[in-house]
Amino acid sequence: DEQHRFGVKQREALGNKGGKPHVLVMSATPIPRTLAIILYGELSVSNIDEMPSNRIPIKNCVVDTSYRPNAYKFINNQIKEGRQAYIICPMVEESEGLELENVKDYAKKLKEIYPPSVNIDILHGKMKPKQKDEIMKAFAEGEINILVSTTVVEVGVNVPNASVMMIENAERFGLASLHQLRGRVGRGKYQSYCIFMNTSDSKTAKERLDILNESNDGFVIANKDLKLRGQGDMFGTRQSGEMYFKLGDIIENSDILLMAVELSEEYMKNISKVNNGRLFENEFEKQAFMQKVEKQIKTCIETICL
After folding, report:
1. What homologous superfamily is domain 59-216 in, according to CATH?
2. What 3-state DSSP class applies to 281?
3. pTM
4. Residues 181, 27: Cα–Cα separation, whole Å
5. How many Å from the N-terminal Cα to the C-terminal Cα in the chain?
6. Which DSSP state fits 156?
7. Averaging pLDDT over each range in 185-189, 236-240, 262-266, 298-302, which range is the top one?
8. Which stretch of DSSP H or E encloses residue 209?
9. Which listed residue, 11, 56, 89, 224, has the most CB atoms within 10 A of its CB?
10. Is residue 61 exposed (0-12), middle (13-18) or buried (19+ Cβ within 10 Å)?
11. Any bridge partners for residue 194, and if so which?
12. Cβ partners under 8 Å of residue 289, min gap 6
């Protein structure tokens, strides 16, 4: 589960456990390399695109820091209606040389803004497991109104009453992480909202965040992420980055790639009808064939790749 959180070598080691097991991977936002492998026909895919019953699509907005006071008012109104909110910061505490929001100082600032009746607490990875469990239990039971946290809440947290997710320095996070964080709200019957606070003037940062602003679909986000970051290495460990070819492009020519996959599968089905349903007479013949194919593939890669 959460396949995008594992490295290439980690997934390879898991896939080699036992006697060549079947491998099922799950991800709300597949990384560029995984999408590329799907396009090359090396990974079958099933897309679950239906929301659970009684769920309402999350409303998103990408804003700059001038909107922050309005965001605080909006969160306060949600609390008055009985809802709760997450506020995510990239740092646990202040770090010299990095002008990023941190959990500890942010919580102190909020306590000066909101009345004492609004209960604000913090959560981060440096806490002891028992303390983290106690805070999450209090938040789940509605005792905490605003939880200021790092990305430790990214997965495995289910609080249906939480309706607002506000992410500070959103441009500092990957699209997959942002999508996962957004998924912490919208888990109940109430309309939920995700506020991406963009503190960068970069055009690229705005374009990335606009992808999340326009879609709640993890596969749509992953496809656009592939276009932005590149597919990475098919035979290496880079999970993103450009891989140029002398002929063809994985994005522009994806329909041709998928057609090639379908034709090759059809060919293999037809050829397997020979030898009484067996493609090879014996294991030795099979291994010899596979070695020949592997050698041809490597030759093709050396010819096509720059």
Report:
1. P-loop containing nucleotide triphosphate hydrolases (3.40.50.300)
2. coil
3. 0.72
4. 14
5. 35
6. S
7. 185-189
8. helix 203-214
9. 89
10. middle
11. 60, 165
12. 280
Query: In angstroms, rounded to a whole number, what is the distance separating the alpha carbons of residues 173 and 193?
Result: 18
Q: Specify which residues 164 forms β-bridges with.
A: 85, 193
Q: Are 153 and 179 in contact (CB under 8 A)?
A: no
Residue with tokens 């880079």: 238
How far is Cα 224 from Cα 175, in angstroms, rounded to an integer? 10
Which pair of structure tokens corresponds to residue 250?
Answer: 């994985």
Phi and psi at residue 102, in whole multiples of 5°? -125, 150
Q: Spell out the SS3 assignment of 215-244.
A: CCCHHHHHHHHHHHHCECCCCCCCCCECCC
Task: Please tell me the predicted confidence (pLDDT) of residue 306.
Answer: 47
For residue 89, what pLDDT is reported? 96
- Residue 132 burial (C-beta neighbours within 10 Å; 0-12, 13-18, 19+): middle
Instruction: Give residue limits of the domains in the chain.
Output: 1-49+217-243, 59-216
What CA–CA distance (Å, rounded) separates 142 from 129?
20
Spatial distance between the Cα atoms of 24 and 11, rounded to a whole number of angstroms: 11
> How many whole angstroms separate alpha carbon 294 and alpha carbon 291?
5
Phi-psi region of 194 (alpha: psi -120 to 50; beta: other; left: phi over 0): beta
pLDDT at 239 over 60: no
**Which amino acid appears at position 239 of this protein?**
Q
